Structures are given as C-alpha cells and as structure tokens.
Amino acid sequence: MEDYKIMPFLTSPVSDAQISSDGSKILFTSTKVNLEENKNESHIWLYNLKEKKLRQFTFSKSSESNPRWSPDGKNILFTSSRQGENDKKDDKPKPQLFVMSSEGGEADKLTYRDEAVKSPKWSPDGNYIAFTSRIFKGEKIKDSDVKIVTRIKYKENGGGFFNGKYTHLFIVEIKTRKIKQLTDGDYDVESYCWNPDSNSLAFVTNMDPDADLKPFKDIYSIKASGGDPERIWKGEGPISSLGWSPDGNYIAFTGRVVDDPKLNWFRNSEVNVLNIKEKKAKSLTETLDQTVGGRDELKWSQDSKWIYFTVPERGTTNLNKVNLNGKIEPITEGKNNISSFSFDDTREILAFTSSNATTPTELYIKNNKKEAKRLTYLTKDLMRKIKISSPEEFWFTASDGVKVQGWIVKPHSYKEGKKYPTILEIHGGPRSAYGFTFGPAEHEFQTLAQYDYGVVYTNPRASIGYGEEFSRMVAGHWGERDYLDLMEAMDYVLKNYEWVDETCLGCAGGSYGGFMTNWVVGHTNRFKAAVTMRSVTNWISMYGTSDLWYNDHDINWGKLPWTDPEKAIEKSPITYVDKINTPLLIIHSENDYRCPMEQAEQLFVALKMLRKETEFIRFPDENHELSRSGKPKHRIERLQHIVRWFDRYLK
Q1: Which of 34, 72, 136, 206 shows the smallest number of beta carbons within 10 Å?
Q2: 323-326 long-range contacts, Cβ below 8 Å, gap at least 24?
Q3: pLDDT tens digits, 459-480
Q4: Domains of the chain
C-alpha cells in the first residue's frame, strides 16, 4: 500500500460563515487534517472586513465549532469538547457550550452535561442562549450495561445507540449561568427558533407515541420562562428549518405536504409560511419545482417581507429569496455550491462559504448587487501540491427523451491520441447530486486521475436539481431508469471521447451508489472491475437493521417486505450474485448503522462461495461517513485500496 501515494486532501476546509450584526467581522470554522494525531481539527477564525485581516480565533487542543455572535457583537458562543475549570482531568466531555469575549481571552464553559450540546442560538436580546441536548427517559438496571429497547428509533449512524434518550430544548441565562430545561417527554425536538421578543421559542416535533412511524411533524411554541408547549400548527408532512419573522407575525419553515406517503421522500421540500394568528400555512415556492434548503434556521429580511433559502439546481446550489406573495428572486448565480450563509442586520452584506469544481470551500462576501468577492485562501498552499484536471460538463439525451447532466475528468497525464481506463462513479442518496464543487468525492476523482484514470460522474434519475418528476422517477423502481441513465451515460462518453478505453472500464459507488454498483455488475459485464462501498445488497435483511430503512422501505417499494417478499427479493442485488463476473472489491465500515455491515458480509460470502474474484475491506471504528469524515489514515487507506484494485484489473 505504501506504493500508492495519495495527494493531500481536505475536510470541509471552511464552513459556517457568521457575519456580525454590524457587518464588520465574519466568524467561520476552519477544519484541517492532522495526520500525526490521525484526526480532523476544527478551529474558529475571524475575518475583519474593515482591516481586511484574517486571524485564527481559537487554539485549544480540542476542536471548536458552531460560532455565533451575540446580538451586540461583544461576545461569541461556540461548542467544544475542551476541558473546563470544573472538569476532572480524566474526564472526556462531549461538546459543550462556551462563551468568550469577541476581543479574545479565556472562554467560559457554561454547560457540563453528559450528553453533547447542539444547535446553540442567542436570544435576540442577548440575555439567553438556547440549545438542544439529549436526556435519558428510559429504564436502567443498576450495575448493568444491558440496553432495554422500547422504541424503533434507538440508534443513529454516527450517533450510536440512544435508546431511552430524547433530544430536548434548554436555555441558559447569561448573567446567572442557570440552565433551564424547557421541554420534556417521550419526543424529540428536531429544530427550533426564538421569537423576536425573546420571550418564547417555536420548535418542531411529533408527540404521537408512534412518532417513529410517521413523517408528520407539528410546530409548537413554549415560553422561555417555562410551561407547557402549545401546538400552533398541526403539520401535514415533514418539517425542517424554522425562522420567526422580525415582526412576530409569521414562522417560515421548509417542508412538504404528504398526500401520498409512498412518495413522500421524493417530493420537493418547499418554503412555507405560517400565519401565527390565523394558524394557517401556505407554500411560497410551489411553482419552483426544485427542492429547497434553509440551513439550521430560515432567515428573514428586516421588514419581514422576504425569506432567504438555497436551491440545488443542475449541479449548483445558489441563494434565493421569496416574498409572501411567492415572488422568487436570485441572490447569487453561477456554477458553484453555497454551503452556509448569513447577513448583517441591514441584509445588505452577505457572507457565505462556497466551492466550485476546482476550488474547495472558501469564504466569500457580497454587497448588494455587487459581484461576490473571495476573502480567504486557506487552501492555497495545499492546492499548490495538488494537480487538478478540470471536469468537463456534458449533457446527453436519454432513451426516453430526458436530458441528463454529467461530467468527465481526464487523467493528469493525458496525452492526445492515447487511450485511458475510465471509472464510472455513482453518487449516494439517491436523492442527492454531483455538481460544481470540490469535496471528498471530487478528491477521489482527482486521486484516480492522478493514477492515470479517466472519471465519469453523472446525475441519473432520482438526483435532485432537475425537478420533482426527475427525482421521483425511481420510487419503487431502483435499478430501472436510473440504471439505464448510467449505462446510456457511458454509451455517450464512449461515442464522444475517443481517449476513453472501452475495454478497460471500472465502476464505483457508495451507499445508494454502492447499491447501484452491485446492481450494475449483476446485470452487465461491460465493466472489468468494480468497487462497492457502504452498500445495500439485501432489502429483506436491511429492514429493521438500518437506522433509516425501517420507515423508508415502504416508501421505496410500496409495501412492507413480509407483505411482498418477491418484490424485495427482485430489487436486492444479492439475488443476482451468480451473474456477477466482474472482480468486485467490497469496502465497509464496522460501525455503519445506515447500511449495516451484514449487507457487505452477505455479498462477500456469496461471491466466495461462487468462486468469484472479490476482496472484503473492513474499517474498524468507522461509520457510514468514512469517506467524508473518517480518521485521516483510514481515508487514505480507503483510496489506496480503490486504486490498487483498479490497477490490478484495468492495467
């Protein structure tokens, strides 16, 4: 493995842009890889717009994240697992809440909880900080480590087991440091926001005893002084981001109305607005035909007339705004992907993080209608060590007449007239998309290009950014139209790019992309080698063992597995294992609760029993996010195995 030198990589190098209310300074999180200690390190940085100076703001040995300005700009909150004054030296605390002066100095630790503190938010008057954290509501047997499971949702990929623990809402008063738990019960607070008067909060939950089985969410309000929650809107589907209007009359939220539960997951998420007095909600973006995003909280204009949100479209993610009449206007444009944003109080200065096809995420600023300006170059030195082959965008017309978008990357050593082995990469999701960005997936593409491979990646049916019909096309039909799109993409590439060697094609993908890789090699022999990662192989055994698919199985197939086992078997790649002749490398993480390890184990054993060419790479202490946020040395080794496998069979 030492023969395979992997080019330096980045882990969300710049994220979470937070501009001060007066528009003079921007906080953000910078993450770097520490190979020596085999970990990712995140610290808070500050850019002074008046002085045009950048400096690191936090320096502890533990990572910091979630920086937020106090309304008056004098203090900053953040979360960190660093030690506090009252911690014992042998304690290993989970991320807690800290506050420090915006001028710097020592940070004051406000919470000492056994569970992590998440989603901290200042009250508009600056007197309180709200946050969410888990509390234990289940049963415990004294001196026992046995888990008593009473609910379906008892584990989470990356979060571990949490049976009996529910996420609830807390506030801490800045002057007294007193913490008050606002919500309590057998339900989870999923998102929340302050009202403009700082005397109450709105939050999203489902208090139904069968909440784990239902996609419906309700909006409640609760007084900051305490008391019982009041339901202010009975939801008609899932709800995510909230945002209270400055005039106090409306709550904006992203979500969708569920009219057909079997297609719920494939419906567009829309920006909705709830009239609090009338307790009526309406969609503002139903004419957009794109799913929308709002980060952790939707932002309003100061006059309460506009709501800001992001839209993934054709491989891009840009910022838009919509008014209460449903008029939509773009704020940013271009072939890039915005990942976080914030405004000053005037809403005239926009700070955001963004990347494009050849540049990792950096910090940008935009004033009114002026062009966006890049402020940071934190990845400049590292990018000098990396050779980048710029992706070439292409579109092709599928056999049913629909246009499909894709990209192709040339090998770094590309020479005119030479043929090169080429890899088809398939994204996860499936409700996701590749695009004009440079992250872990694109680093993988460039690593393959470094070793003289071409790379093709595309957004087949089920991808977002092309309208609801495009993304719902494969509901109940995985391995059908999406499979055809992938194969027709390769047909297009072979016809239009003479340097692609049709005798040396590879295929790779993770999660849904792993499912599709398994499906592809079970239905065609056109690929000479393949790598499947964190994949799905058997829908029957997947049901009930995943942290997700206990509820979504019927969304995808229309029926529960025991009511229609024939359909589940038909759509399981393991069913076609005897038809797999392509050498297949299987990569899986042992703590993957999204696509459990048994999925990979079944496939490996079946292939070995059939005397097929295969290897099984198991990563300990990693979960479904290995390629994105795993330990750096494991991420390097994963890429080395991918290149090694393709070298063995394609060269």
Answers
A1: 34
A2: 323/284, 324/250, 324/273, 324/284, 326/284, 326/285, 326/286, 326/287
A3: 999 999 999 999 988 878 999 9
A4: 196-299 (2.120.10.30), 392-650 (3.40.50.1820)
